Amino acid sequence: MLRSTLKRFLEKWKSYRHRFVPWIVLNLSKNEKTLRQVTESSKDKLVPDEEVSQTLLKLFWILLRTQWANNEQLRAAQTQFLKQVKSEEDESGGLPLSGDDAMLQCVGFCIDRKQSTVPSAGTGVFVTKGFVSKGATVAMYPGTVYQAYEPILLQSIRNPFVFRCIDGVLIDGNDKGISRVVFKSCSARDRVGPFIMSDTSWLTARPQNPLAVGQYVNNCSNKCPANVCYQEYDVPDTFPIELRQYLPNVNYSQDSQRPLRCVVLVSLRDITAGEELFSNYYTVVH
Predict the structure, then answer these.
(1) Alpha carbon distances (Å) from 208 to 27, 72, 132, 158, 193
(2) What are phi and psi for residue 214, nearest 5 degrees?
(3) E strand residue ranges, 8-148
(4) What is the pTM of this model?
(5) Is 105 exposed, middle or buried (0-12, 13-18, 19+ CB in 10 A)?
(6) What residues contact 71, with CB distance under 8 A and at least 6 apart?
(7) pLDDT tens-digit profile of 68-117?
(8) Cα(191)–Cα(81) distance, rounded to whole angstroms?
């Protein structure tokens, strides 16, 4: 009985440890190639926020165009922004696309979740089509955003998907259990009239925003070098309200005075179809 229990624990641990921060830090520090050092929190960015915004806006515009074509109620409740979308669609002759096709057209590649190539690592994320160029926004880390002073103890128990930003902000990317309930509740709370302010579809097997699978990217190791890295991205106030429905993040507190924090994964090198994504952690050096 004891041997069976220990065996089950070890099997779970082999999968959990690839996202367990203390284990990652202890083991990756043995090889500095697995850590990316930055001199201060503001220097963690490989690409400017403006480039990240451009990628997201371009992809979300295509997703909205598809939603427009399939939703009569949305067409009836036109805003000036949606009229502009429709006008540009007519001029370009664009046809509605699925999430994967939209991603392929927009950024030149597709990603999807599959069984990881790392033994016992569980699910991983792979480039399934196209080609990823260095510096591209490859994925987003979805979840509820907690400021450093907000409670997350219950949600964090046996939860390998809590991501810690440089400034102490936490993002809970677990799509199950209490984490799932909290995200859906916060998303419903933040709705502004007809406008949905966050995307809950990442909690399902087929997210409408195909980038929103970053929580399943496994961390690099000595045998699997990193090809992507995390980059913090605060959503600007100018981000169109009509496109916020595709953002896979929501603030835990409604009265948060800070911009919505997102975390994207940016490619460290060119990546070809068939490769699995592996991320590294940054460490601040003074």
Answers:
(1) 35, 18, 20, 27, 21
(2) -65, -20
(3) 35-38, 109-115, 123-132, 137-141, 143-146
(4) 0.80
(5) middle
(6) none
(7) 765 555 555 545 555 555 555 544 445 556 567 889 988 999 999 999 99
(8) 18
